[in-house]
Amino acid sequence: MGELPVIDVSPLFDGRSADGAARQIEAACVDSGFFYISGHGVPAELIARMDAAARRFFALPDEVKMKISMARGGRAWRGFFPVGGELTSGRPDLKEGIYFGAEREPDGRPLSGRNLFPDEVPELGAAVLSYLRVMTEVAQGVLRGVALSLELDEDYFATGYTADPTILFRIFHYPPAAADDGWGVGEHTDYGLLTLLLQDDNAGLQVHTTGGWVDAPPIPGTFVCNIGDMLDKLTGGHYRSTPHRVRNESGRERLSFPFFFDPGWDSEVPPLPSLARRDGGRARWDGQDLRAFTGPYGDYLLGKVGKVFPQLRADVLD
Ligand SMILES: O=C(O)CCC(=O)C(=O)O
Ligand SMILES: [Fe+2]
């Protein structure tokens, strides 16, 4: 009770029968929408390299970090924000961080463009770009499992919603916090399809399952995987996009690395007709009715991001 499952996803990558993994993914997605993945094949060396570079960056003085501030990223929404700069649930979060995304020429749409990498830590940019490539493969593999779990063709996502995915990647640095200090990340659900979260050795993530709040501490060699609002919407609520939050009470600094793998910017994500009758009609935690949103994913994402960065929204979008 209260434990999130660990699912070995290696059959989704090595051609063995993936039925068992798909069934475990289904059970986890119906239950809490959260599980750990092992057998993902991400090199430990790459993780160590990115972790070390990120630590070097966050140890720099604020005025140096602000050289790549999000204000400089403009419409691409890239770069550094200081502690208190993001308001996940309406209040300033107790964390600082860097926003990255797919490295591409700006195409005129919000959130597209080039990353801002710090000159002072040149190895960070190289590690992040490698990590984005590797995690794209991991995410497509997990989505093969999700597709199989829904009795869809295993390439359902790769040839559709994630043929040209929206990719966001963040590195967060949480200073140590006391119990009455407020949240590192306020309660929220993720917006897209899939989040793959790498955590350092420090706990802090909590997930609101039907049994109440449970901890999702780091397990060596795994990622925490959770589904976002678009998978909830696609499945008519059969799969759950579940609220979670972070408070770093470890007494140490905590780093986390969430990778968000989302539908293409222009994709609309209507519910699958095959699941229409399975909707339990459950109300969402925040009262939002996902079915009421019928526009493209990009509009949904901008509505969410604009709320957590009100100033940036005012500068960039309005
Ligand atoms: O830092 C974490 O452990 C989780 C962060 C998170 O939930 C998010 O960025 O959406
Ligand atoms: Fe999240």
From TrEMBL:
The keyword Iron applies. Signal peptide: none annotated. GO terms for biological process: antibiotic biosynthetic process. InterPro entries: DIOX_N (IPR026992), IPNS-like_FE2OG_OXY (IPR044861), IPNS-like_sf (IPR027443), Oxoglu/Fe-dep_dioxygenase_dom (IPR005123). Pathway: Antibiotic biosynthesis. Keywords: Antibiotic biosynthesis, Iron, Metal-binding, Oxidoreductase. The keyword Ion transport does not apply. One of its GO terms (molecular function) is metal ion binding. Residues 164-263 form the Fe2OG dioxygenase domain. Gene3D superfamilies: B-lactam Antibiotic, Isopenicillin N Synthase, Chain. Belongs to the iron/ascorbate-dependent oxidoreductase family. This is Iron/ascorbate oxidoreductase. It comes from Acrocarpospora corrugata.
